[in-house]
Design goal:
Elements lengths: L7 H12 L2 E6 L5 H15 L4 E6 L6 H21 L7 E5 L11 H9 L3 E6 L5 E8 L10 E4 L8 H13 L6 E5 L8 H6 L14 E4 L5 E5 L1 H6 L4 E2 L6 E2 L1 H7 L3 H7 L14 H10 L5 E5 L2 H14 L5 E6 L3 E2 L2 E2 L2 E9 L2 E10 L4 H16 L9 E5 L4 H11 L5 E4 L4 E2 L7 E2 H14 L3 E2 L4 H8 L1 E4 L2 E4 L9 H15 L3 E7 L7 E7 L9
């Protein structure tokens, strides 16, 4: 049948769907990803009675071409059935669910018009009352609640893909027969959730292969990758914009004015960049360095916290130590976790041996836990207590003030108001939030950080965005709000800033009244310009 007339890379992915419950098709632009999905959907409907395939795209307004592809393939299948199967014309019907009619023939534009009225279903009847179907929907958390196979097309264009994926996973997990297939080119912004999902393992080298290359991504998804070189090996060429002459991938890239766009769309290179403040390559390096040295704990029960405290002495070294505490708040209806980070310095390296997060509505639990952390640090061999505890008091000033009073006997405690402006002589004024966050990002970019190797932490740090010179963060669907990032920046500040700072004016000349500020540092003897 004509539906099996596919390119070699398409055939590879066509077969992968039978092997893996979740798999992705990462292919160069205009390779036929959507067409491949349509053929897979038809195959599944033909094989399984009373089955639903949800075909999802970025938005309804972009789906006319998807529906055209479906209609062409369906009509080819219908024609093949009529020709090759006795009474084949009675097996395949195109069904308009609003009118109940089965038109004898619809053009691709007819299909698109029906779809835009949100009435389109493709149905394959096994009897008068039994059929399988394909529904086309806009990918949104509210539209993927129906059970069945799910096909997600062009993930790069779905801005809230993280929320969609959150809604998808329970459906796929509910039945071992359900399949989820993904397709995209490389997202422009490396903070896009699909970027991390499909990122190849570090150091993996792809050789040109007409069948494409299969790899397991860092997100654990089996992926069929077909770049411009793989397609060219199967005689699927690129063509010059003016003359239409076929071009090798190398020549096509040479002639393209936007090399970064070519690398993403045709070379399928995962280029670090975009709006995320923390580069994924830098985070990956810092977390690889932290394997076996650093630990992240998300507390679901008291026993989780107890185990973290018990392990803490084994993680801490004898060096100087700072502690940062980001107090939980509620942002845009989401309940955010509290986070505590412990930072230690060894030369130019700043290590975070423990970052811990929890959710609680009881301030007494939060206070008891932070006090236990302080005491555990103080008991480390050959190290002594931490230099300072810095608490984010921007939104929880009343609680933070009480906490400072209760913990003052253990170590110096500083309240950091992120919205306050830092006016350093000779520098552009900026908020404390911007100053501390920029310092942490600079240390990450300079390859000075060692971090716990946990996916939660990486995703949380990637939520922090650069926006016109400021750092912003929108909550994730599970409440993550850059809380571990904020705790880490406070811990770093507690380490390098030390205790309270007093500024005094000291004359530098007995002849004139000119003077320059000097800094007297209380507590630890290390000057720091606030």
């Amino acid at each position: 049948m004509s539906i099996l007339n596919m390119r070699r890379g398409q055939r590879t992915f066509f077969r992968m769907v039978d092997q893996y419950r979740i798999c992705a098709f990462l292919a160069r632009r205009q390779y036929g990803k959507t067409t491949t999905f349509a053929k897979i959907a038809l195959k599944k409907m033909m094989k399984q009675r009373d089955h639903t395939v949800i075909f999802g795209s970025a938005k309804l307004s972009l789906s006319r071409e998807i529906v055209r592809s479906e209609s062409r393939i369906l009509q080819a299948a219908i024609q093949a059935a009529v020709t090759e199967i006795p009474d084949g014309a009675t097996l395949f019907k195109i069904f308009d669910s609003s009118s109940g009619k089965s038109p004898d023939k619809l053009t691709p534009d007819d299909f698109a018009e029906i779809f835009e009225a949100q009435r389109l279903e493709f149905r394959i009847y096994f009897s008068r009352t039994s059929y399988s179907r394909t529904k086309v929907v806009a990918l949104h958390p509210d539209t993927v609640g129906e059970t069945g196979d799910l096909m997600c097309d062009e993930l790069r264009a779905i801005r809230n893909w993280r929320e969609v994926w959150e809604a998808v996973k329970p459906i796929i997990s509910s039945n071992p027969q359900f399949r989820c297939t993904l397709s995209t080119t490389v997202p422009t912004d490396d903070s896009h959730y699909a970027y991390g999902q499909l990122l190849p393992p570090v150091g993996l080298d792809f050789k040109p292969n007409p069948d494409g290359n299969i790899y397991e991504s860092q997100g654990g998804i089996m992926t069929c990758r077909v770049d411009a070189w793989d397609a060219a090996a199967d005689s699927v060429m690129l063509f010059d914009d003016k003359t239409g002459e076929p071009l090798t991938p190398e020549e096509s890239r040479r002639r393209d004015q936007d090399k970064d766009a070519w690398d993403r769309n045709y070379g399928l290179l995962f280029i670090a960049g975009g709006t995320s403040a923390c580069g994924i390559t830098q985070l990956d390096t810092a977390q690889r360095r932290g394997v076996g040295k650093c630990c992240f704990v998300l507390v679901d029960a008291d026993s989780d916290f107890d185990r973290a405290i018990a392990e803490l002495p084994n993680l801490l070294g004898p060096g100087k130590t700072g502690i940062g505490f980001d107090v939980a708040t509620t942002t845009k209806g989401y309940s955010n976790p509290s986070a505590v980070a412990i930072c230690q310095q060894n030369g130019l390296e700043y290590s975070f041996p423990l970052i811990i997060a929890w959710k609680t509505a009881d301030p007494r639990i939060a206070e008891e836990r932070i006090e236990r952390i302080i005491k555990a640090v103080a008991k480390r061999p050959d190290g002594g207590k931490a230099r300072s505890l810095h608490i984010d008091a921007t939104n929880e000033r009343y609680f933070a003030t009480g906490l400072r009073q209760n913990l003052a006997a253990h170590l110096p405690v500083t309240l950091v108001i992120g919205s306050e402006t830092d006016n350093r002589p000779g520098y552009e004024p900026m908020t404390k939030k911007q100053l501390l966050g920029s310092r942490l990002i600079a240390e990450l970019d300079d390859n000075h950080l060692t971090l716990p190797p946990e996916r939660y932490l990486r995703d949380d740090w990637r939520l922090v965005k650069k926006d016109r010179g400021s750092l912003t963060c929108d909550p994730d669907v599970d409440g993550k709000h850059g809380d571990t990032f904020d705790a880490a920046k406070l811990a770093l500040n507690a380490l390098v800033a030390g205790g309270p700072v007093e500024i005094q004016a000291a004359p530098i000349s007995t002849i004139a009244n000119n003077y320059s500020p000097t800094f007297a540092v209380g507590g630890h003897g290390r000057p720091f310009m606030r």
